[in-house]
Amino acid sequence: MVRRKLMGRLAPYLLVLPGWLWLVIFFVIPVIAMLSLSTQTGDLIDGFTQTFHWQNYLDGWNEYHVEFIRSVIYGAIATILCIVIGYPVAYWIAFRGGHRKSSLLFLLLLPFFVSFVIRVVSWQFMLADNGIILEPLKAIHLLPADFHILATATAVVGGLTYNFVPFMILPIYVALERIHPEVMEAAGDLYATRRAAFRRVVLPLSMPGVFAGVLLTFVPAAADYVNASILGGTDQTMIGNVIETEYFTNTNYPMASALSFILMAALLIGVFIYAKVLGTREVLDMAVA
Amino acid sequence: MTDTMGSNNPGEHPQMSPDWLRGLLMPRVSRRMALQAGGASALALALSACGVAGVKAAQSTPSSPSAPAPTSVAGGATSAADAGSSSSSAATTSTTADVNAAYWAAQTKTGEFNFANWPLYIDVNPNNKNDHPSIDLFTQQTGIKVNYSEVIQDDAPFFGKIRPQLAAGQYCGYDLMVITNGIYLTLLIELGYLTPLDQSKMTNFYANASSAVKNPSFDPGNVHSMAWQSGITGIGYNPKLVGRKITSWQDLLDPKFKGKIGMFADNEDLPNAALCAIGVDPATSTQADWQKAVAWLQKGKPLVRQYYHQDYIQPLSRGDIWVSMAWSGDIFQANASGANLEFVVPEEGAPIWTDNMCIAKGAEHPLDAMTYMDFVYEPKIAAMLAEAINYITPVRSAKTFIEADAAKATGSDKASLQQLASSPLIFPPQDELSRLHYYRVLTQAELKTWNAMFEPIYQS
Q: Do residue B309 and residue B446 come from a single domain?
């Protein structure tokens, strides 16, 4: 009897055990190992030893704050562009898609059947100085001969926007799709203009979707390094590129870990401020959407 | 607000029902707190105890095991190839050699091995990209199957990829791998991640290898490596767009080419080429020289369009850049597939590098790999490879085979083979070789300074 009661009380915990183990093995342990590594000193030959050298963080920030700030700015611009481009698309599919909704969503995801890197490289091909887009424009003297898009910030931010826009559209679509048309009709019955109905009813109801979209877009975009290395030039290095170099090229594992932690902390703080502004309740709703 | 929505249409989105999801979510928050609390206490322990340290191979073993003298090796190789005699001859040398001989004596052929190489770095059947005639020939002769994979994009990421397994003393998945001399080959050797080669099974190597790749400075006595191919880091350019002859490193930074210049984004080719550009032999360069090289690179930076990894050849062929640091064989290969580029070894001198075959520690098929490594030193096989790869072949006598192939061939094949056989980029003449310099060998402490100085150039 007692035993049965105990089992009953333990059951929920046992049920979440696989999730727990998953988190511990693939998240908690690696994060602790990385945190430990980030305060070590040494080199590969002599090995890295724990010296609680927190200076790594300060050095990392002092040396690479330009790349940090640039990454956050690029990520933010790309995210805003994703909202501007993605919201109308999601709105149109949700309310005007009709029975073609699923085909439209499939089209949206179609590019994902091609590898991420290949998609970026094909942009490099299309945007080439004398490529299929710029060549004709230069031929008719719409653009000066030395005009180029590659190796500029525009190319990098454009690449980020292109790659992450579906991650913005999908959650917004899910949020909008749940809004019954009757809700808008009701707003109309209450003398709201179409604009007011959108601003005061549809938009607030879709905010959780936008929030989820921002998370799915901003965090990976700010940490991305593929776009910068393929589409960027000499002054478009992002923090992801720096971390890659520190890890692989310089085999400076403590610095790579410290930089990753600074990035993670910066993004987490950003997300929490963002959540605070929207209110805690919305954060939970956001996770639901 | 989602409450009303959720209860309105739970049927449509059973997996998305907010009530259900929040039910899962609410307790998860508290569990996460518990996790955090547990984590925090574990953290205190882990931070001080967490051992990512001590990667270095046992301090007792010397970092570069004493190499058997080349003469004794040659003797052993000619007398007999069986394990018995090689172990008896090794008995007179040091204990490391004993251990090594015992290791090799215990190995038997397994009938296959795994080969990690760089892309476009072997001959290819024109009708089937995945078929390599020289490998087929090897399998025919020896019965050993080669699992060939082009997984090495660059030394640094490949090293990063296999390091954890090697550090744990496990098989990294490849028996034979091709690593460039320099930082990462040195790391692999110093960390004891390579299996010393069986010198008695290097008959073709000692008979046919050119003097440039025997007993190289980065691996004295060829204890751990045999050259695959060598190459020059010089300047590649599009003569039509540049409009003049490029002869020196200073030409690369001509302000007229602003925004059309490519350079390498790495910590070996870029710094060593810059040292050549300021007239210093990288091998003997000092920190003051490095400073000058950095200044030279900084001066050129506003003119540079991009610092490239492996991907400069496309923009160069397309005309996005007109002139770039380049690897000799790449330009040859680009021209073979229709581009019209030129390669020049700048008059100030240029870096030369060698990609080396080596056997990973813990290899599961070392004897098969060893057999293959010596096989490619047959002049006929070396010629097959050189004809396809267009880098500097380690076997000079391959030239007669290429000439013979040229005599047999017809049309455009004949012309390109003749050009190949007489090319100074594949068989560099002696005066050219004297202008070529190997990379600076760096200690770990020097490497830190070196990286800190050169990294801000290509990464900003």
A: yes
B116 belongs to a structural domain: yes
CA distance A1 to chain B (A): 27
* Residue A264 φ/ψ, nearest 5 degrees: -60, -45
Residue B54 lies in a domain: no
Nearest CA in chain B to A19: B28
**A285 neighbourhood in chain B, CB within 8 Å:** 1-2, 18
Please state, in angstroms and rounded to a whole number, the distance separating the CA atoms of residues B392 and A85.
52
B311 lies in the same domain as B340: yes
**Where in the sequence is the domain holding B315, given as residue range(s)?**
232-352+436-458
Length of chain B: 460
pTM to 2 decimals? 0.81
Residue among B9, B35, B156 minimizing CB distance to A249: B156
| Cβ partners under 8 Å of residue A98, min gap 6 | none
Do residue B306 and residue A131 have CB atoms under 8 angstroms apart? no
Q: From CA A211, how far away is CA A278, in angstroms rounded? A: 9
Give the tens place of pLDDT for each residue, B157-211: 999 999 999 999 999 999 999 999 999 999 999 999 999 999 999 999 999 999 9
User: B104-138: string of b/e by CB count within 10 Å (b at 16+)?
Assistant: beebeeeebbbbbbbeebbbeeeeeeeebbbbebb
Q: In a 10 Å sphere around its CB, with 0-12 CB exposed, 13-18 middle and 19+ buried, how is residue B256 labelled?
A: exposed
Report the pLDDT value the prediction gives residue A159, as an integer from 0 to 100. 96
Write the pLDDT tens digit of every residue in A20-59. 999 999 999 999 999 999 999 998 888 899 999 999 999 9
Can you tell me whether residue B398 is helix, strand or coil? helix
The number of folded domains in chain B is 2
Is residue B326 over pLDDT 60?
yes
**CATH class as words, domain A57-288:** mainly alpha
Q: Which of A127-136, A176-185, B53-62, B96-105 is the least confident region?
A: B53-62
Residues B302 and B396 in one domain: no
3-state secondary structure of B351: strand
- Summarised one tens digit per residue, pLDDT across range B99-132 is 899 999 999 999 999 999 998 899 999 899 889 9
Comparing CA positions, the residue from A76, A79, A75, A64 lying closest to residue A260 is: A64
Both B207 and B111 in one domain: the answer is: yes
Length of chain A: 289
What is the CA B375 to chain-centroid distance, rounded? Answer: 20
Q: Are B154 and B282 contained in the same domain? A: no
CA–CA separation, B323 vs B332, rounded Å? Answer: 15
**H-state helical runs in B50-94:** 70-79, 83-90
Q: Is B167:B343 a contact under the CB 8 Å cutoff?
A: no
Q: Which residues pair with B178 in a beta bridge?
A: B357
> B305 to chain A: which residues are within 8 Å by CB?
151, 233-234
Residue B345, both tokens: 């070894």
Of A108, A122, A131, A127, nearest to A226 (Cα)? Answer: A122
B99 and B109 fall within a common domain: yes
Evaluate whether residue B33 is within a structural domain: no
**Could you tell me if residue B45 is inside a domain?**
no
What ipTM does the predicted assembly reach? Answer: 0.82
What b-and-e string marks burial along A67-93, b requiring 16 or more CB atoms within 10 Å of the CB? bbebbbebbbbbbebbbeebbebbbeb
Contact assignment for A288 to B21 by CB distance below 8 Å: yes
Which residues of chain A are within 8 Å of residue B312 when distances are taken between CB atoms? none
- Are B271 and B150 contained in the same domain? no
Residues B244 and B145 grouped into a single domain: no
Which CATH number do you get for residue B396? Answer: 3.40.190.10
